[in-house]
């Protein structure tokens, strides 16, 4: 369970600095609650280069939605963590969270495991069908998920490219697409990953056609303005809390220094955060 947004294994995960990424967060929250984009789609693909802040954005969204009780489950892949760099715990982790969020289906999930103890060794599609689709079937038919303000339907999957098996990355997307299209799975998904070729090809395949929309972390959302806010606030905190803060000049760092760091960041929060940290 170390892949959940609130897992102790991921203690102090990256998230958006206050007053940054406001437009991106507002767009995503509007989509979750059906307030923007009348075109129906079930998967929001958040993508951008390494260091663009995808994980921080999804961590922030997960925490906001958790406070509003409007998230069903989350899974954050991690390349360097052997418990989070494989597809095997994905469906079990999501199913467990759904069973906690919706107690009505917990007995159904437990029954599946009792009747089929090796379910976790079966394919992604089979696990999805047995542990999630089937238990949710009656609730879905009753209209349980029709109002996202009352009953959550959001699942977040971050860092799909950090799953160590490229074939599994595509299998996950195809299994979700089949569940949405053929099984009428009433859930919505935010999936974040880098725009690498194998995933781009999968998203562009017929199996996912019409089910997704992309949200690109590019200059549209003015990352340099957000990086400036982050740097100014962070340096101000350093000047206030450093053990030798009394020796730090009031005009440190200079405006030209800030501008230089923003330029070097090239729209990537990772660079700015590393500068501040070290």
TrEMBL record:
The keyword Protein transport does not apply. InterPro entries: NACHT_NTPase, NPHP3-like_N, P-loop_NTPase. Gene3D superfamilies: P-loop containing nucleotide triphosphate hydrolases. Residues 42-186 form the NACHT domain. Keywords: Repeat. The keyword Repeat applies. This is NACHT domain-containing protein. It comes from Pholiota conissans. The lineage of its organism: Eukaryota, Fungi, Dikarya, Basidiomycota, Agaricomycotina.
């Amino acid at each position: 369970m170390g892949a959940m947004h609130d897992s102790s294994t991921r203690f102090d995960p990256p998230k958006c600095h206050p007053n940054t990424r406001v437009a991106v967060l507002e767009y995503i929250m509007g989509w979750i609650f059906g307030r923007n984009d009348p075109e129906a789609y079930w998967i929001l693909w958040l993508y951008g280069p390494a260091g663009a802040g995808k994980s921080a954005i999804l961590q922030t969204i997960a925490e906001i939605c958790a406070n509003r009780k409007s998230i069903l489950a989350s899974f954050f892949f991690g390349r360097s963590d052997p418990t989070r760099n494989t597809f095997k715990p994905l469906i079990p982790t999501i199913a467990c969270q759904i069973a906690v969020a919706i107690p009505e289906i917990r007995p159904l999930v437990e029954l599946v495991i009792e009747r089929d103890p090796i379910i976790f060794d079966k394919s992604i599609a089979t696990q999805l069908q047995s542990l999630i689709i089937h238990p949710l079937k009656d609730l879905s038919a009753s209209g349980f998920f029709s109002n996202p303000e009352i009953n959550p339907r959001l699942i977040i999957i971050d860092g799909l490219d950090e799953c160590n098996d490229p074939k599994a990355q595509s299998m996950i997307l195809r299994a979700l697409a089949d569940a949405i299209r053929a099984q009428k799975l009433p859930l919505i998904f935010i999936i974040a990953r880098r725009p690498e070729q194998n995933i781009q090809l999968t998203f562009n395949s017929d199996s996912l056609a019409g089910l997704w929309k992309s949200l690109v972390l590019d200059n549209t959302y003015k990352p340099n303005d957000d990086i400036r806010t982050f740097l100014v606030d962070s340096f101000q905190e350093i000047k206030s809390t450093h053990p030798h803060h009394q020796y730090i000049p009031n005009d440190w760092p200079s405006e030209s220094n800030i501008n230089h760091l923003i330029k070097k960041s090239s729209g990537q929060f990772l660079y700015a955060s590393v500068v501040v940290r070290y």
